[in-house]
Design goal:
The protein has 143 residues and is α/β, with parallel strands linked by helices. The chain contains 5 helices and 4 strands, in the order βαβααβαβα. The chain has one domain (6-141): Response regulator (Rossmann fold), CATH 3.40.50.2300. It has a 4-stranded parallel sheet with strand order 2-1-3-4. The chain is globular.
Length: 143
């Protein structure tokens, strides 16, 4: 009997830059050992593709974000996940308000002790920096 994959949920503000990239990287590096989803704390980008500059930065590192469509976090996703990985402390605070007694212990920061900065509105190099930062942080969450 094989164990079910570890369920990881990555969360950022809009599910437009950081969390979709983190989910993709975790899924590719973790393979069948993980089931990964991403979501945002705001609904603004629900149904929309990832940020164009993030798609470009991801592609330069060998990741294809073109299939991504934004999703808003909800209690069902928190229940589904074994670990909920917030990209920054602001999103972690929002998640804590949404969590209940059962889901609150699953919450944490993707990088453990620091934020993954939001590249929104910054130069293309900022998006490339985020790709490397998220790649470097991925092994801590993989079986």
């Amino acid at each position: 009997m094989t164990a079910r994959p570890r369920r990881l949920l990555t969360v950022c503000l809009g599910n437009h830059c950081r969390s979709p990239l983190a989910a993709l990287i975790l899924a590719e590096l973790g393979g069948p050992a993980v089931d990964v989803r991403s979501a945002g704390t705001r609904e603004k980008w629900v149904g929309h593709p990832a940020h164009a500059q993030m798609v470009t930065a991801a592609a330069a590192a060998g990741y294809d974000l073109t299939a991504h469509r934004g999703v808003q976090v909800n209690p069902g996703l928190l229940e589904w996940a074994d670990a909920v990985l917030a990209m920054d402390t602001g999103n972690l605070t929002t998640l804590r308000a949404l969590a209940d007694e059962a889901t609150a212990p699953k919450l944490g920061l993707y990088l453990g002790d620091r934020d993954v900065p939001d590249p929104w509105g910054k130069e293309p190099e900022a998006f490339a920096d985020i790709v490397r930062l998220i790649e470097d942080g991925a092994p801590r969450h993989l079986p």
